[in-house]
Amino acid sequence: MTKKILKRIFTFTLTFLFLLSSISFSQEKAPKYVFYFIGDGLGLSQRAIAQLFVRIKKGDSNCKLTMNTFPVVGIKTTHSADSLVTDSAAAGTALATGYKTNNGVIGKLPDGTDVKSILEAAEEKGYATGLISDTRLTHATLASFVSHNWDRHNENEIAVDFLNSNVEFLGAGGYGHFVPENWKYGESDRKDNWNILKEFHRKGYRVFATEKETNNFLKHKPVGKEKVIALLVDSHLPYELDRGNNLNTPNLEQLTQKGIDALCKYEKGFFMVVEGGRIDHACHYNDVVGTIHEVLAFDHAIKKAYEFYKKHPKETLIVVTADHETGGLGLGTGVGYFMKLEELKDVKRSIDHLVTGNKKYAGDRLAYLNFLEEVYGLDNLTKREMEKLEKAMELEDKNIEGDKDEYGHLFKSPVALATAHIISERANIHWTTFVHTGVPVPLTAIGVGAEKFGGYNDNTTIPKNMAEIMKVNLGH
Predict the structure, then answer these.
(1) Which of these is catalytic: 45, 80, 88, 165?
(2) Which has fewest Cβ within 10 Å: 77, 129, 181, 253?
(3) What CA–CA distance (Å, rounded) separates 163 from 154?
(4) What residues form the catalytic site here (predicted)?
């Protein structure tokens, strides 16, 4: 047999095997159940420190966050169309639609063209859908999956988009944008008399609103295919550190489980987006302990999805990523190679509690220092720490909120900021900013088609790959 014939046979064999593998992949069954987890502000440092904290707390150097056990790992760039540092609207749009847009824009291209989201594409194919967050439902990330608006802050308009979305399960905070002005049952952010929750009820939804409905919501067991909207606080759900044992609101884990319970009744399967939004808020405050506990709460929600996956491994896909990193969290800085996470174990409340809570600094320095020792574990203050607190107290005594560049746009209390930084610095942890950064973010995945999400690429590839695996039309 001549070399020429052998070469032809070899070429034919390779071509045949390639075509066979292509046919095999194209015939792979689409996942019936898809979970899309988005940690707002969740960079690699945030995932790492939460895992290290749990290891120290449990005394187990081998334990891992559930999201860190998934076999497929990727790194995603996050820039928007008009900035190397994205906001949550542009990042949410990229994660939802596969298109870049300008900061502040929801579900539109910079030229004004509306773009379809992966959730809208899933609805078209017959998937039941769910949107869950521990922030307001109308906040930028979830809004990117159902809305098309020039301005992420038009939350009253975005509330109407949720009404028209036909999403089967909606669980979050933020009823204030759905109820009329002067609503007698709770706070309203509307400037009209439109009760959008009543419109949901007319469309056949089971409606749970305000903290008083939490127990009814948690006890509710869907019978057959039901549509549910649960908005149990007027704005964001509380931070995990501030939740307490008796606080009458659900956490992200409970919302996720209720979403699974409702959507699994739909025979064609479901597509569910879960946002851990308060990670971002804690990072904006440079609140290291608050950040850790929000990451852990997010991971507990992921664990619920993973438990579901283990019952349906050949029908389920789970993707976990982030929209951007927040805070520029640095693990170990200055002189020496160390961190002291044990310093963080006695912190009992979020930094936000020092800004908006009833224990914020009010001029009584001794009382405030005693409170910091009792609730934030800040005893035996060093000379440098005391000087930092006293400088901040002097500013607040003079009613000076501080320069935005120095204190961050969220800080009305220089004392709260000083407290946050002392807590971090005791553990040898530092922050570079109060806002978002441009660093790429991690992704992990498991299940049907998960291998397509690995590698170093852009966040716009995620919904495109998801659409291919789910066999839905994203419009690209």
Answers:
(1) 88
(2) 181
(3) 15
(4) 88 (phosphoserine intermediate)
If one counts the domains in the chain, the total is: 2
Alpha-carbon gap, residue 289 to 353, rounded angstroms = 13
The encoded tokens of residue 170 equal 């909606």
Query: Beta-carbon neighbour count of residue 127 at 10 Å?
Result: 25
For residue 337, tell me if it sits in a domain: no
Q: Is residue 40 part of an annotated ligand binding site?
A: yes
% of the chain exceeding 90 in pLDDT: 85
pLDDT of residue 23: 44
280 and 188, same domain (yes or no): yes
Task: Based on the residue annotation, tell me whether 88 is a catalytic residue of this protein.
Answer: yes
The model's pLDDT over 77-100, given as tens digits with 9 standing for 90+, comes to 999 999 999 999 999 999 999 999
275 is in an annotated binding site: yes
Residue 107 belongs to some domain of the structure: yes
Quote the mean pLDDT of the chain.
Answer: 92
Q: Is 161 marked within a binding site?
A: no
Q: Are residues 404 and 293 in the same domain?
A: no
Determine the angle formed by the axes of helices 365-376 and 383-397, rounding to 10 degrees. 130
Full residue range of the structural domain in which residue 362 is found: 352-427
Q: Is 346 annotated as a binding residue?
A: no
User: How far is Cα 293 from Cα 80, in angstroms, rounded to an integer?
Assistant: 28
Whether 476 maps to a domain, the answer reads no
**246 phi and psi angles, rounded to 5 deg:** -115, 10
**pLDDT-wise least confident of 9-13, 130-134, 245-249:** 9-13
Q: Rounded to whole angstroms, what are the CA distances from 398 to 49, 385, 401?
A: 37, 20, 9
| CA end-to-end distance (rounded Å), the chain | 48
Neighbours of 225 (CB within 10 A): 12
Give the distance, in angstroms, between the CA of residue 466 and the centroid of all CA atoms in the same chain. Answer: 18
Q: 133: pLDDT confidence band, cut at 50, 70 and 90?
A: very high
Question: In which element (H, E) is residue 132 found?
Answer: strand 128-136
DSSP state of 306: H
Whole-model pTM: value is 0.93
Q: Is 210 annotated as a binding residue?
A: no
Residues 263, 265, 271: CA angle, nearest 5 degrees: 30
CA-based radius of gyration for the chain: 24
What's the rounded Cα separation, in Å, for the pair 263 and 122? 13
pLDDT tens-place string over residues 46-79: 999 999 999 999 999 999 999 999 999 999 999 9
Q: Is 261 annotated as a binding residue?
A: no
